[in-house]
Design a protein that fits this description.
Its EC number is 3.4.11.5. The protein is α/β, with parallel strands linked by helices and about 280 residues long. It has one domain: Alpha/Beta hydrolase fold, catalytic domain (Rossmann fold). The chain has eleven helices and eight strands. The chain has an eight-stranded mixed beta sheet with strand order 1-2-4-3-5-6-7-8, sandwiched between helices.
Length: about 280
């Protein structure tokens, strides 16, 4: 299989990119979660489903294997991530492409879809759209009663437990799934900096509710979410309703449904890919 790996400059950033598959196949840009994650786990988990695509996995600015950037809030905004995505597509010679966004990456995908007419459609996996809602879920995971202020909810939750422990409670329906995910991540050897998450926090990310911007798209959008993904479900139902998009809820699965329920996820994901209408 064709595979090109390297670094591509996009304005102020330099992105680590893995360009995989037939260069003449439909292009799919993969946006990982975070802020501050990397694309390794998505390629490991989803690569076999995307063999009919030219799949472009990349680590977002200052994250994962991409070159580090200073912890400057000016450098870490949704606008910057959208611009990076479009510049990357331009650098690769892509006038038309589809998007696959996971978690926080789904938010970036939605904004790229809203701005750029060359996007043929998008799949949103466990989308993070309302950070005030997510802050409430974190407070609940910490055993607290949420308040009205999302940043207060976040602070109170983090006073009770480490961030990883709280997210683990929401993301993984079973210890087996968590351990398998950790095995994959640890095997990657990728340890990204914390600068993106801290900079987005300073920029007020946890007050961002993208819900009012969700309107039906003329291009196909599909949502795949785990029924036990406490970071995205059941809010993903609201997202689907506003987008007028099909939603595929994978029973007994969390934020990484291909790990928890591979057979059910595979069926749902292939249906979502078909909805893009870009398969051969």
């Amino acid at each position: 299989m064709r595979e090109e790996i390297g670094y591509i400059p996009v304005g102020e950033a330099e992105l680590y990119v893995e360009d995989v598959g037939d260069p003449h196949a439909p292009a799919l840009l993969v946006l990982h979660g975070g802020p501050g994650g990397n694309a390794y786990a998505l390629r490991e988990g989803l690569g076999e489903y995307l063999e009919g695509f030219r799949a472009i996995y990349f680590d977002q600015r200052g994250s994962g294997r991409s070159l580090e950037l200073p912890e400057d809030p000016r450098l870490f905004t949704i606008d910057a991530l959208v611009e990076d995505t479009l510049l990357l597509a331009e650098a690769l010679g892509l006038e038309r492409f589809a998007l696959l966004g996971h978690g926080f990456g789904a938010l970036v995908a939605l904004e790229v879809l809203r701005r750029y007419p060359g996007v043929e459609g998008a799949i949103l996996l466990g989308p993070w759209v309302s950070f005030p809602w997510l802050a409430q879920r974190l407070a609940e995971a910490a055993g607290l009663t949420p308040e009205g202020d999302p940043e207060a909810n976040l602070r109170a939750a983090l006073e009770r437990a480490e961030p990883k422990a709280l997210f683990d409670r929401l993301m993984f329906p079973s210890p087996r799934g968590r351990l398998e995910y950790e095995w994959v991540v640890e095997g990657s050897g990728v340890v990204g900096p914390d600068a993106p998450a801290r900079a987005f926090l300073r920029n007020g990310l946890w007050r961002l509710d993208y819900t009012p911007y969700l309107t039906p798209s003329r291009r196909p959008v599909a949502i795949v979410v785990g029924e036990k993904d406490g970071t995205s479900y059941p809010y993903a139902e609201e997202v689907a309703e506003r987008l007028k998009a099909p939603i595929h809820v994978v029973p007994e699965a969390g934020h990484f449904p291909w790990i928890d329920q591979p057979e059910a996820f595979g069926q749902a994901f292939l249906e979502a890919l078909a909805a893009l209408r870009v398969l051969h």
